[in-house]
Amino acid sequence: MREAALALFAQHGFAAVSMRQIAAEVGVQAGALYLYTKDKQSLLFDLMQSHMDDLLAAWQAEPKGDGALAHLEAFARFHIRFHLERPDAVFIAYMELRNLSDDNFAAIEALRRTYEGELEAILRAGHAESVIHAPDIRLTTMALIAMLTGVNTWYRDGGRLSRDAVADIYWDMVRGAVGA
Amino acid sequence: MREAALALFAQHGFAAVSMRQIAAEVGVQAGALYLYTKDKQSLLFDLMQSHMDDLLAAWQAEPKGDGALAHLEAFARFHIRFHLERPDAVFIAYMELRNLSDDNFAAIEALRRTYEGELEAILRAGHAESVIHAPDIRLTTMALIAMLTGVNTWYRDGGRLSRDAVADIYWDMVRGAVGA
DNA sequence: GTCTATATGCTGATAGAC
DNA sequence: GTCTATCAGCATATAGAC
After folding, report:
1. Pick the CATH number of A1-37 from 1.10.10.60, 3.40.50.300, 1.10.630.10, 1.10.1740.10
2. Which of A57, B37, B42, B92 has the fewest CB atoms below 10 angstroms from its CB?
3. What pLDDT, on a 0 to 100 scale, did the predictor assign at position A141?
4. What's A28's DSSP letter?
């Protein structure tokens, strides 16, 4: 059910997908879905929370090397790799925030800020080491995340460039953007 | 009507907003809206098309200076200024593409590609002039647009930085990212 | 655990009065 | 030009049979 909901929400949007459509995709009747989720809102929240939990856990488990610059490269490559592996979940996590209830929104927002905080800490360390030159760390954090996440809007498997080639080029741009 | 629809679509999403809600915001009954739009789909399309037309016309009217680097700076500052001036329209133009009919989607997509083509042409000129160093112009185009458009996700008027200060910093990052 | 049936309410769009 | 009234259909969620 979660798999079917993820694909349908990503394609048509949460509000445009009915529980009947999800049920049809799974091969059951709509009523049966309520054995596995309290309601449609909880289903969306669970998908988004799982995605953010996976993201934070994967980053914690990532090898990061020594020094702020190595950390920054690890972050850029990790972010691109992780996001290209699950485009539907990424799409939902960014597009369906406004369809969350207030409480659920606050919870997801906290996870997102935690992840942004990881990059921000790297940039601050790089600034302290004088290997990164940025007039405003918080703003640079937002700019880099937007640039890296943007890969998902255009990258398609089987295209002109491999994922690794894309990561190489983006890492060059990240390095240039922070004057490293 | 268009003003009310723009605000409501941006806040709740096209699929989650009813014609009755729009009518209530305008102060009329739902049926009266159909004197001004053929249907809900046309209303969305008109909003998006107007936004893209405004964007392209404003860029054409923008003073651009001499040389590819001056052009690039003009583009970066223009993009940030224009997008910060109309956050609702920008939000809709990026988030509601999947709610367009096939024909309408193709039309909006063509306008979007035209705009991207403007930046791409600047980068190619800069590459020819050897003032820009980028291994893949198309990819750099997408990365820069994502970075610049990302301003809308976090910038709020009355915050720590003025729009001009933000544009200054972003222009520095754009210049660094293309090795200029 | 899944089904059918159903409650209650909202949806986009139209017809015709004024 | 705006209203009221309405059509036909779909929405979420639940109840109770099997």
Report:
1. 1.10.10.60
2. A57
3. 98
4. S
